[in-house]
Amino acid sequence: MKNMRRPAAVLAALFLGGAVPIQLVTLSFTYSQIVKGESLGPKVIRTAHEFGLPYFLVALVPALILLAFLTVWARREYPDLARRILIGLAAGAVATVALDFFRQAGVLHSWLPGDTPVMFGKMVTGSNNFWTLYPVGLLVHFLNGTSFGLVFAFVWGRRRTRLRTVGWAVAWAVLVDIGMMTLPPMGPMVGPFGVRFAWPELFLLTLAAHVAFGVVLGLLVYQWLPEQDTGMITITE
Fold first, then answer.
1. How many whole angstroms separate alpha carbon 179 and alpha carbon 195?
2. What does the alpha-carbon distance between residue 90 and residue 93 come to, in Å, rounded to a whole number?
């Protein structure tokens, strides 16, 4: 039974800090766009709120609390696991700031169908009050970024060189961009890669934003993770 503690802890961290936060957006809009068949902007967000708020309260908030407890426990039992959690989350958060430089440019030039934190905030809160929805939407937006950072720190980690680490991080970020541009909410809303909205500006904008995310993520993971954390995290004791 003791031999199962580390695998369980690693998988729990990936689930609590990676899968649960990331799926808030995709599951909420899948419910709205695919299950309920909504296609118009405001109706899509209102229907996504029916799924998003319960998921946020029942799944996401408890997952983050459990992740915090797991991290505190891991600092004593498995320091490398705690290190990857904290560095992955921190690197993902800083990389999201780099991504937002391009995202804001897209909002200003109307190359995006909406401001992401506003959309996420309405989805979770159901409110149209900017000062209510925007902080929550911004939190969800950054939670997505931190979660992708955690996944990268676990699955790829620090590579042998800085260039390789950045290269794998960019590849990971581009894969995320492809998913974002083909899956809910963006895919059904604007067509694959934005062909029904602002082509090719939307695609090029999101690609540039995610490449920037990947570059910063790779640089920080290489800088912050020690050499002993090279490669994928070990699951066995």
1. 15
2. 5
To the nearest whole percent, how much of the chain has pLDDT over 70? 97
Structure tokens of 168? 């794998």
* Count of positions (residues) in the chain: 237
Question: Model's pTM, two decimal places?
Answer: 0.92
Spatial distance between the Cα atoms of 223 and 55, rounded to a whole number of angstroms: 35
CA distance 225 to 217: 12
Contact indicator for 146, 213 with CB cutoff of 8 Å: no
Whether 21 and 146 have beta carbons less than 8 Å apart is answered as yes
Would you state the structure tokens that stand for residue 62, as one six-digit string? 């408890």
Helices (H) and strands (E) in the chain, counts: 10, 0
CA-based R_g, the chain, Å: 18
Q: What's the token pair of residue 13?
A: 């961290």
Instruction: Provide the residue type at 137 as one letter.
Output: G
Per residue in 9-59, pLDDT (tens digit) is 999 999 999 999 999 999 999 999 888 888 766 788 889 999 999 999 999
Rounded Cα distance between 172 and 174, Å, is: 6
Contacts of 30 (CB under 8 A, 6+ apart): 183, 184
- In whole angstroms, give the CA distance from residue 196 to residue 165: 35
